[in-house]
Every structure is written in C-alpha cells, then in structure tokens.
Amino acid sequence: MTERTSDERGTTIKSVETALDVIEVLEKREQAGVTELADALGRSKSTIYHYVNTLEQRNYLEKEGGKYRLSLRFLALGGFVREREALYRHGKDDVDRLADTTSELVRLIVEDDHQGLTVYQAAGDNVTDPHTHVGTTDSLYCTAAGKAFLAELPEQQREAYFEETALEPRTEHTITDLDELRAEIADVEETGVALDDQECYEGIRCVATPVCCNHELLGAISVSGPVDRISDDRFRTKLPNELWNVAGVVEINTTYSRWESSID
C-alpha cells in the first residue's frame, strides 16, 4: 500500500518525497554514498539503497567509486522546461547583445515559488567570475529582479509575501525595514526599474526591469557588476535606459509571436 502524507497543500506520496529528497541532497553535495545519504535524510541504508538503485536504473543517477551523482538526464529535462519559458525564447538573443554592449553579466530571471530563478545568463568581456549561474535562486526582497516582480504583484499578494517572509540581511546593505522596502517597491512601480545596491551580493550592484506581455509578467532582465565598474550614473541612468529598450523589444517579440500563433 502506498504511504501518503498530508499537509495544507494536500496529500503527497511519501516514497516520491524521499526520492526527491535524495535528488536535492545530491544537488547540494554533488556526490554522496548510501551511508552519507542515509545520514542526511534520517533513513536506513537499506531503504536509501533501493531509491538510489532505482534512480540509477532509470538513468537519473550515475555511480562511480561507490558514490552517486546526478546524471545528464537532468540537463535534458531542464532544457525542455526552459524552452517553454517565453522570456527565454524571445529574450536570449537580446541578452547576448546586451552583454556584449555593457560588458557585464546579463540575466533572464523568472519568479519560481517566491524566488528569483536564473534561466539564462550571458557574461560580457569584463566578467571573469560570474557570481551566479543558470539555476541560481535568490530571494525577492533583496534583489533587483525580485523587487521588479514584487512591484508587478497586486498589493494583496505583495503584502501576503511580506507577511510570510523574514527580511534577513544577506549583506550589511540589505533592506530589512519593511516600510523602507515598501517605499522602494513604490518607486519601482513608478519608474519601471529596480535597483540592488550590494543588497544580495557584497560588492555587486544590479539593475533590473520587468518584462510583461499583455499585463502578464514573464520575468525580468538584469545587468549586474562590481561597484568599481557600475558608477552611480551608470547604475541609475545608463543601464536602466538600456534595459528599458531591451525589455521593450522582448515584449514586442513575445506579443507578435503569440498573435502569429493565434492565427495559424
């Protein structure tokens, strides 16, 4: 009989939860043996063995030297999921061009479970060690893209997010006062551009603007770089103007593509 658990989100299947727990541990640790996985999950080694053996047989795990790691099957699945994102399909080429013109790190970010998730990024010539990668997730309240998302939310949804989110400092510059954050979100609503002045990553400034299509939020485009390259004028004027232009192009291309699909 299948073991099930239940919470406010509904009934879940315990065995599926455990399999996903194994995958998530391996995502964080890169590789691990049965004993290490059993200790991390509080399960017996014999139980964990059955899970990793099944995942290996289905080609979701690889085994080498007694340790397991995620297989490239996840890369194929991730690519399939990413291709469904309109922001990626219609924004990738423009992100590449913006990275070339700014010489900085440019990202496409979508909202996923109250986090900002990087679905694509391009590094300009000045970028030698990107502080993020595809798949990076960051909190909404302390990132430029996250503030752009919050500014697009209906007020009731935004306040619900604030109620369930602790504004914990990521750096000494993180805004942890809710009234101050509300005021900044109001500025984003008015200007259409969001700023992160070392609030998420020490020494990194980031500018972002939301991308919408027919009032639907697709995600955000951001440009980030170190403080010594992102001067105040560039931070508050030049980069926002470049982002507005790119976001406008992506919005037009997305709208046209959807219109074209509707008449086929």
TrEMBL record:
It comes from the Archaea. GO terms for biological process: negative regulation of DNA-templated transcription. Residues 13-72 form the HTH iclR-type domain. One of its GO terms (molecular function) is DNA-binding transcription factor activity. SUPFAM superfamilies: GAF domain-like, Winged helix' DNA-binding domain. Residues 73-256 form the IclR-ED domain. Residues 171-198 form a coiled coil. PROSITE patterns: HTH_ICLR, ICLR_ED. Keywords: Coiled coil, DNA-binding, Transcription, Transcription regulation. This is IclR family transcriptional regulator. It comes from Halopelagius longus.
